[in-house]
Amino acid sequence: MIKTKTLKHLRLTAIILGMSLTYQAEAAQVRVTVTNLAPQNGTNLTPVWLGFHDGGFDLYNMGISAPAFLESAAEDGNTAPVTAAFIASGYNVQTTLTSLNNPPVFAPGVSNSAVFDLDPTSNRYLSFLSMIIPSNDAFIGNGNQTGHAIFDVAGNFLGQDFILTGENVRDAGTEVNDEIPANTAFLGQASPNTGVTENGVVGVHSGFLFGGSILGDARFANADFKSSGYQIARIQVSAVPIPAAMPLMLGGLGLLARLSFRGRSRSAIA
Ligand SMILES: [Ca+2]
Ligand SMILES: [Ca+2]
Ligand SMILES: [Ca+2]
What we know:
- By secondary structure, the protein is an alpha+beta fold.
- The protein has four helices and eleven strands.
């Protein structure tokens, strides 16, 4: 009798454990945290576009002219075009993460995060994109679409935790870096896509102009991202072990199992 009970308990436990294991293999919840690491009066970041894909979505390549969606993001912080391009490429797990402040930019020291439900195969890689402000067309974003794997080929969670320095700042090559306030987002630019067309290619940004209107502005006195050791941002991708509802659900299942077992025992006695 005791043996039968134990066996039944074991079988139920196995079923419940199996359910939780199946859940982990099929989908994973991850948290992406973006932090602006620049010093006070340093560089700001526009809301950060984040997208998860299977390695088939490329934001840009060094030495090649920027796609239109990159121009909008790099010159105006507008992520609507990259969002549409991502969908057009067949992907749908993406967001534009704001700072929750007003304006929604990431000022130095500001951090925010978002949680995503990911498929380890179709959402294996992270891509990110954000404009550096103020600037003409400076941005951070990964040019290597498979550079930030969240899962390995077998679907095991890898996570990511990396720091972008001043050397990771790119020039979209779409607008001349004249830093004239009327051409420069966040300084005096009144409408999108305002500035002198550069007709260039994406490359490493050469830095803000010494004596220019960005570094000459007291609010951005520490925005020289070419200075030694300058840190722009940190991006962390961590696993959310079990969704908050899962332990409750498992607890509930256990209780149900126990109740049904007791019910059966009683009817057996009767
Ligand atoms: Ca430029
Ligand atoms: Ca501009
Ligand atoms: Ca332009």
